[in-house]
Write a structure and sequence with these properties.
alpha/beta, eight-stranded parallel beta barrel, three-stranded mixed beta sheet, 15 helices, globular, binds 4-nitrophenyl beta-D-glucopyranoside
């Protein structure tokens, strides 16, 4: 097998075929041309946080090698490309008091080149890299962040919105909040179990809602674009389908990952009942009586309900879920969730241990979203397959993965009637995979991040003649 074959006729002619990247993972140029530092610069420079103390200081050097990335995009014949803006490249201290013209020039060139090549850009405003200056002000834990984010978003809509029509405000609030503030494995590296995670998630929803409303009121009638928030979710099934406790735990598992953000935005304007009742019950159980852990949405600011023009889904893997409500545990997110996800022995694992390969889980998740969240138009904004160990350009197993995944999406479209509008492979390039550094490779193109040239080489799964 040499390359992915699309199921013929299965996809509508205007289906979006894209690949995705994120600024910190590919750009490098961490302090070039006036860019301010972000929390990921600080986190990686601190040592002991990332595989072999690697950093995104240079990464794929897309800041200087954008022309090479463009060639990759052209070679694949993509119709769409999803990138993220580095907030502190545009606004070095995070505020609109000071704009970095070189940053604006860089993204203008990227956007203009894409459009000149008939590639539609989708831009993420925030993909994990908060300006350090705003972190020093309290970061995502400070209520002020919604104001800062809204100003940044308006600046971007004003500056680039004549050409960018697809916007993502925040990428994966779950991952940002859980890994950054509960587990401490992502920047800013805080371990404050059971508390900050909900505050940060809440402020991300507030920030998102403000930005969507700004777009809706001031830009939509002029620019005609769409704005959403990218939510990651596993697909979950009960470990023992005959156990009512596991069945209940599975619903809870989904609510604590996806419902946490999707329910406020697509369903009720508030958190899922499962989350509210579990957290309340745990407060009583543990005698926790300080400020409410799960904040409330206030009447005097925009509510998140209805603040997404499409559903942006990042899907990687599936889990079998068992109930853990009888386990004793300290105050923590997982104690609240009381559901543990395990992988099935029969699922192959690709590269990283968390990534069990379950393409059929995507079809089921798409159907679940259709049924739970009001049949939204869905873009799959990330999905991919990683490789570890020796570089294999002949990536037969990744090819099979994409083949199987596209079959499942085709079935979701045709048999389940899910309104899927597009698919973005994670990622265009092998890149800086956060705490795993360059040891985990998700690219459609290989980039040797240890060499000075940083040459891009196509993997076989996407059509290389080796
Ligand atoms: C996503 N997990 O993050 C991100 O949006 C990308 O930046 C990242 O490179 C990609 O997935 C691959 O990891 C995730 O451990 C990181 O469950 C980790 C997890 C999920 C998503």
């Amino acid at each position: 097998m040499s390359e992915i074959k699309l199921p013929v006729g299965a996809f509508p002619p205007d289906f979006a075929w894209g690949a995705a990247t994120a600024a910190y993972q590919i750009e490098g140029g961490w302090n070039m041309d006036g860019k301010g530092p972000s929390i990921w610069d600080t986190f990686c420079h601190a040592k002991g946080k990332v595989y072999e103390d690697q950093t995104g200081d240079v990464a794929c050097n897309s800041y200087q090698l954008w022309d090479e990335d463009l060639k990759c995009i052209q070679q694949l014949g993509l119709t769409h490309y999803r990138l993220s803006f580095s907030w502190s490249r545009l606004l070095p201290d995070g505020t609109t008091n000071c704009v970095n013209p070189k940053g604006v020039m860089y993204y203008n060139k990227v956007i203009n080149d894409l459009i000149a090549n008939a590639v539609t850009p989708m831009v993420t405003l925030y993909h994990f890299d908060l300006p350090q200056a705003l972190e020093n002000h309290g970061g995502w834990k400070s209520p002020d962040i919604a104001d800062f984010f809204d100003s940044y978003a308006r600046f971007c809509f004003e500056t680039f919105g004549d050409r960018v029509k697809l916007w993502i405000t925040v990428n994966e609030p779950y991952v940002c909040a859980k890994f950054g503030y509960e587990d401490g494995i992502f920047a800013p590296g805080l371990k404050e179990p059971g508390t900050s995670v909900y505050l940060v998630g809440h402020n991300m929803l507030r920030a998102h809602a403000r930005a969507w409303h700004s777009y809706d009121a001031n830009f939509r009638h002029l620019q005609g674009g769409k704005v959403s928030i990218a939510l990651n979710s596993d697909w979950a099934v009960p470990l023992d389908p005959a156990s009512p406790k596991d069945v209940e735990a599975t619903a809870r598992y989904m609510d604590f990952i996806l419902g946490w953000f999707a329910c406020p935005v697509f369903c009720t304007g508030d958190y899922p009942e499962t989350m509210k009742s579990r957290i309340e019950a745990r407060n009583l159980e543990l005698g926790f009586s300080k400020a409410p852990r799960l904040p409330k949405f206030l009447e005097d600011e925009p509510n998140p309900l209805g603040t997404a023009d499409f559903f942006a889904l990042n899907y990687y893997t599936s889990r079998k879920v068992k109930d853990t409500s009888s386990h004793r545990s300290e105050l923590s997110f997982s104690g609240d969730q009381a559901a543990e996800g395990v992988t099935d022995q029969s699922w192959p694992v690709c590269g990283v241990s968390w990534l069990a390969v379950v393409p059929e889980g995507l079809r089921k998740l798409l159907k679940y979203i259709k049924e739970t969240y009001n049949n939204p138009a869905i873009y799959i904004t990330e999905n991919g397959f990683s490789q570890t160990g020796p570089v294999q350009l002949e990536d037969i197993d990744r090819c099979q993965f994409y083949q199987d995944t596209l079959q499942e999406i085709a079935k979701a479209l045709r048999e389940d009637g899910v309104d899927v509008r597009g698919y973005f492979a994670w990622s265009l390039l092998d890149n800086f995979e956060w705490t795993e550094g360059f040891s985990v490779r998700f690219g459609l193109f290989h980039v040797d991040c240890y060499s000075a040239e940083l040459k891009r080489s196509i993997y076989r799964s996407v059509g290389a003649e080796l």
